[in-house]
Design a protein that fits this description.
By secondary structure, the protein is mainly α. The protein contains 26 helices and 2 strands. A two-stranded parallel ribbon has the order 1-2. The protein is globular.
């Protein structure tokens, strides 16, 4: 049957009828406004067809324009829920020494492993399979980490026998268990005598030279700080809001808090060697070879610590040869220490460092864009900022740090004269030129900018081998592309490259028990050319245990991984440099072997184990 084209009035009538059906009997139609049933059905079908066609065309256009979010996978909701669940539990069980905390987290990990196993791996696309493998790897590693933390806690349990009392009070508060003020006061009143007893025992052990060493002393002192903070939170919740609580608890709480404060300092002073008015001693917490191997497996690095040290020494030898060449070009007859001293004097005057860093940032961006090496969104160029680093923080970070906010490390007026000179020498123009691109663009700022926009659920798997490896890789690539314009620039870049090699050597040897913290400091001064103050700061943050024991090794090793992948995909002609770098950024900060699996289309199975030998032939 041929359909009569609709008149101008028909669509309005149909719309009114549709509205009337949805709105109900309050809006009846007049008889002359009703549309025959068949005509109404045909119009409805045409509307459905048009709507369907619009959706199909929109999705096709979006896909061709690259607007669809390829990061979505069947495992994503599981990953994001786990991240939120873990955060909620860690906020509830805030005392890290708590056995309840460990048990609850272990159950969370086991439940998520079971849920992950229920997913059909074979039905997942490549991105989903990568997520599945990364999530399982993380959960299994977290389980082992809890076991490792429990063993470390057991080693200091005798130094903090009062811990269960404080943990119990705080966890009861968190779970909203009713408090009996008199009973709580008695518990608190019992803390100072227990602390006195364990302190007297330690003093006798110090006399007998059988006391725990600096590592356990510092670890115990940090645990006491944590317990003191938990007790403060507990008291703050009730004090003044509960009159009888304040009446009973005020005095015993004050005594317990003072006893904890004094005991923490006793541990630091007598066992760890701290002295008031002086910089803290550099004390690390070596984890041992077995734990190092576990960390390496978790990071998908199929090498032993010994193999990585050997690799670093080979890279170090290359740096030393290039440094001698630069020294020759500067007229120092191969003496790299003289070349370093010369470059260190080429710093700007106080107050001029921010201006210099802005110039160096613009220079790096122009270099990249002229060679079409990576996509730099205009907003990324617009939004980076600069702040000055406080003097206290410069004791740990003697060089500037970066990301969206670049933090400038440079002398302040309350530093000593020698400290000012060392800071200026260590942040000279050519050292800074070699690191501005590391911290900003194409380094950490560009990387962070993209990580907030692509595969955001993968932030759970964040690894320094990609985070720091990406920035270090660019140092290598820019060297190959003749970014250094003078022999002084080459010295600046080689200083940092040598430093990354040294980080592998001293950090792994420290955790293997082959070097002390002081030997690590001396190594950086003698082998790399660090100022003593800066070498001390580098080692302090490397061995303190505040982050992964592999973090310092990850710079060079991650850079070498990306460089090997560049040879495989770009040097072979399979990808352009720009496409390669953009693709890496869109994968987010995950282990580089998994990025390789994604970019090469590697066949993945649930039995996957790390095997990529990225160094050498």
């Amino acid at each position: 049957m041929k359909t009569t084209p609709p008149t101008a009035s028909q669509p309005n009538a149909a719309a009114k009828d549709t509205f009337a059906r949805r709105a109900g009997p309050e809006y009846p139609l007049e008889p002359d406004q009703r549309i025959p049933c068949n005509q109404h059905k045909r119009k409805a079908l045409r509307l459905v067809f048009v709507a369907w066609l619009v959706i199909i065309l929109f999705e096709t256009f979006s896909a061709s324009a690259g607007q669809r979010d390829s990061s979505v996978s069947p495992t994503r909701s599981l990953i994001e829920r786990f991240r939120n669940d873990r955060g909620a539990l860690e906020r509830l069980y805030s005392v890290e020494l708590s056995t309840n905390r460990n048990a609850r987290l272990q159950r969370l990990f086991a439940d998520n492993l079971a849920a992950l196993e229920q997913l059909d791996f074979t039905s997942l696309d490549q991105s989903g399979r990568i997520d599945w493998l990364l999530f399982r790897n993380l959960l299994q590693f977290e389980q082992r980490e809890l076991d490792y933390a429990s063993r470390k806690a057991a080693e200091i349990a005798g130094l903090i026998p009062f811990a269960p009392v404080i943990i119990g009070l705080e966890e009861d508060r968190r779970r909203l268990q009713a408090q009996e003020p008199r009973a709580s006061a008695e518990l608190l009143a019992g803390l100072p005598p227990v602390i006195k007893t364990v302190r007297e025992k330690l003093e006798q052990q110090l006399t007998d030279k059988s006391a725990p060493g600096a590592v356990l002393g510092r670890r115990a002192a940090m645990a006491v700080d944590n317990l003191r903070g938990a007790l403060r939170n507990w008291n703050r919740f009730y004090a003044d809001y509960h009159p009888s609580f304040t009446w009973w608890v005020q005095a015993p709480y004050a005594a317990a808090d003072k006893a904890l404060e004094d005991y923490a300092w006793f541990l630091r002073e007598k066992l760890a060697g701290f002295k008031k008015g002086e910089d803290d001693p550099v004390i690390g917490d070596p984890i041992g070879r077995d734990a190092l191997l576990d960390y390496l497996r978790a990071e998908l690095i199929p090498y032993t610590p010994e193999e990585l040290i050997e690799l670093a020494e080979k890279e170090f030898a290359w740096c030393e040869r290039e440094m001698k060449r630069a020294a020759d070009d500067l007229g120092f007859n191969g003496d790299w220490s003289k070349a370093m001293a010369h470059v260190s004097r080429l710093h700007v005057e106080p107050g001029e460092q921010p201006k210099m860093i802005k110039e160096l940032a613009d220079e790096a961006i122009a270099f990249l864009e002229a060679r079409d090496l990576v996509t730099i969104p205009p907003l990324a160029k617009e939004t980076w900022r600069m702040e000055m680093m406080p003097p206290e923080r410069q004791k740990v970070n003697p060089y500037f740090l970066g990301g969206e906010v670049i933090q400038v490390s440079y002398p302040t007026d309350d530093m000593s004269h020698e400290e000012k000179l060392m800071s200026m020498r260590g942040n000279n123009r050519h050292f800074s030129r070699a690191t501005v691109q590391h911290e900003l663009i194409p380094g950490h700022h560009l990387q962070g900018f993209m990580a907030q926009r692509w595969n955001t659920h993968r932030s759970l798997f964040r690894t320094p081998f990609l985070v720091e490896g990406w920035a270090l890789y660019w140092e290598m690539l820019l060297w190959d592309l003749n970014f250094p314009q003078s022999a002084e620039d080459r010295v600046g870049m080689l200083f940092w490259r040598s430093h990354r090699c040294a980080r592998i050597v001293f950090s792994l040897k420290f955790h293997l028990g082959q070097m002390t913290a002081q030997e690590c400091i001396d190594y950086l001064i003698e082998r790399v050319g660090h100022e003593p103050r800066n070498a001390t700061a580098e080692v302090r943050r490397s061995v303190a245990g505040d982050y992964s024991p592999l973090y310092q090794a990850a710079y060079m090793l991650g850079g070498l991984q990306i460089r090997a992948l560049h040879r495989e995909l770009v040097a072979s002609g399979k990808m352009t440099a720009r496409d390669f770098h953009d693709a890496l950024l869109r994968e987010n900060s995950i282990p580089i072997e998994m990025i390789r699996a994604s970019l090469t289309g590697q066949t993945l199975t649930p039995e996957f184990k790390t095997s990529w030998r990225f160094y050498g032939e």
